[in-house]
Amino acid sequence: MVYTISTAFAIYFVIWWITLFLTLPFGVRSQHEDGEGAPGTDPGAPIATLMGRKVIWTTVISAVFFAIAWFGNSAGYLTTERLSRLMGF
Q1: Which residues of the chain have pLDDT under 70?
Q2: What pTM value is reported for the model?
Q3: In 3-state terms, what secondary structure has residue 43?
Q4: For 20, 25, 51, 53, which has the most beta carbons within 10 A of its beta carbon?
Q5: Virtual CA dihedral for 79, 81, 87, 88, nearest 10 degrees?
Q6: 58: buried, middle or exposed (CB in 10 Å: 19+, 13-18, 0-12)?
Q7: Domain count, the chain
């Protein structure tokens, strides 16, 4: 199966989005943990989300996962028949 550019981009985008949700909780400190906080705000609200770092890590991790999936598909390890057999269909 040959990837078109739009298919490859769509697959990468889905992998990137899932990876972003996996990396969001790392390194976040809440107002309660830090001992600071404005009156009237939720104590669980984050102080600094560090989104720049998370976007960079998400891009790197997603690129690695995408490369592994691309290689698996190109080498014939990730075929529709093989995956359906593994899932019991």
Answers
A1: 1-3
A2: 0.77
A3: coil
A4: 20
A5: -170
A6: buried
A7: 1
**In Å, how far are 23, 29, 30, 73, 84 from 36, measured between CA atoms?**
24, 11, 9, 50, 52
Q: Let me know how long the chain is.
A: 89
Nearest-angstrom CA–CA distance, 21 and 65: 15
Contact 73, 1 (CB under 8 A): yes
Chain centre distance of CA 22: 6
Q: Give the CA count within 13 Å in the CB-facing half-sphere of 58.
A: 21
Range(s) of the domain holding residue 35: 5-86
pLDDT value at residue 13: 97
Cα 3 from Cα 9, distance rounded (Å): 9
